[in-house]
Amino acid sequence: MTRVAVLYGGISAEREVSLATGRQVIAALRQAGYAVTPVVVGHDLAAVIAALEPRPDAVFNALHGRFGEDGAIQGVLDWLGIPYTHSGVRASALAMDKVAAKAIFAAAGLPVAGGRVVDVASLEHADPIPLPYVVKPVNEGSSVGVEIFRTGDNRRATVAAGWSFGPIALVEEYIPGRELSVAVMGERALGVVEITPKTAFYDYEAKYSPGMSSHAIPAPLPEALTALCLETAQAAHRALGCRGVTRADLRLDDRRGAAGLFLLEVNTQPGLTPTSLVPELAAHAGISFTELVCWMVEQATLDP
After folding, report:
1. Is 34 one of the catalytic residues?
2. Which long-range contacts (CB under 8 A, 24 or more apart) does 103-112 make?
3. For position 209, what pLDDT does the model report?
4. Is residue 14 among the annotated active site residues?
5. Of these residues, 18, 87, 213, 267, which one is catalytic?
6. Is 247 a catalytic residue?
7. Does an H or E element contain 146, and which?
8. Active-site residue flag, 143
9. Sheet of 188-197, strands arranged across
10. How confident is residue 141, by pLDDT bands cut at 50, 70 and 90?
């Protein structure tokens, strides 16, 4: 019987999401017959390493956010020689750094929103680009810290004063239109989902609170646009050097047709919670949750 340790929890702003993902994964792997060791991760790295003795056959990395999907824990697992799910050190670090990932996407010819990196303190004094625009932390996930500024918005000074995500931020033009996401499983894009949040945008609450967003699978798009979404997600997965399962987030200004599609980011460890998109997309493709996580375990490996 394969022995799997599930790392979940963590020390990022996404700890609660990771705990929810971990609980789902543990139950599914146990149902499938794996010998599962749950490891709730906190600030004590030595305790995490100790919990991995005796060495499992594989680690299911159910951590989200900083130190969990930015290459940090991946490097530890490579050092220990324990195969793990999801992407390796380099791809994880690049995807988590929105500025680096955006440069890679642009170099690969993928459509990205215009924008630039700014000193957060400068927000107090002037708009860094024409309104409307989006301000994002460089290395957070789950829409943590994301702010949208529209015409007449006077929150710049308040946001700058309360910013807790480092001295810089990524500012991008706001893309009006539709929220889309694509799951990639290995080399296969599973489908496109359209998300309609009940909040102002697809924020943390809309992502993880039941009933706060609706999901249309497959997304009601023309065939050519669906194909473009799938191709873009696969190309982004390859450009970063990802493996396992990823989720690409896109925006579509459908007034502009194919020219209105923009790649926002790639999540190398997408949520597997009851409200998450990847399990829904997998189910639509005929892959049960248990089959999905078992496949991920069987694909577990070390960084090449």
Report:
1. no
2. 104/239, 104/240, 105/236, 105/239, 105/263, 107/239, 108/235, 108/236, 108/239, 110/232, 110/235, 110/236, 110/239, 110/263, 111/232, 111/261, 111/262, 111/263, 112/262, 112/263
3. 63
4. yes
5. 267
6. yes
7. none
8. no
9. 213-216, 188-197, 178-185, 245-252, 261-267
10. low
Whether residue 202 has pLDDT greater than 70: no
Give the C-alpha separation, 82 to 302, whole Å: 7
Residue-by-residue DSSP string for 239-283:
HHT--SEEEEEEEE-GGGGGGGEEEEEEESS---STT-HHHHHHH
Residue 113's φ and ψ, nearest 5 degrees, are -75, 145
Which pLDDT band holds residue 199 (cuts at 50, 70, 90)?
low
From 70, 140, 203, 265, the catalytic residue: 265
Q: Catalytic one among 147, 249, 280, 303? A: 249
Question: Is residue 200 very low, low, confident or very high in pLDDT (cuts 50, 70, 90)?
Answer: low
Q: Is the pLDDT of residue 235 over 90?
A: yes
| 214: annotated active-site residue | no
How is residue 182 written in tokens? 């694509």
Q: Indicate which residue of 71, 88, 115, 271 is catalytic.
A: 271
Residue 84 annotated among the catalytic residues of the structure: no
Q: Is 267 a catalytic residue?
A: yes
Catalytic option among 12, 61, 87, 142 = 142
What's the pLDDT at 1?
53
208 is catalytic: yes
* Catalytic residue selected from 208, 213, 276, 280: 208
Joined tokens for residue 251: 């925006």
**Domains of the chain, CATH where assigned:** 3-85 (3.40.50.20), 95-112+176-288 (3.30.470.20), 115-173 (3.30.1490.20)
- Asked if residue 211 has pLDDT above 80, the reply is no
- pLDDT at residue 78 above 60? yes
pTM, two decimals, is: 0.91
**Model pLDDT, residue 142:** 58
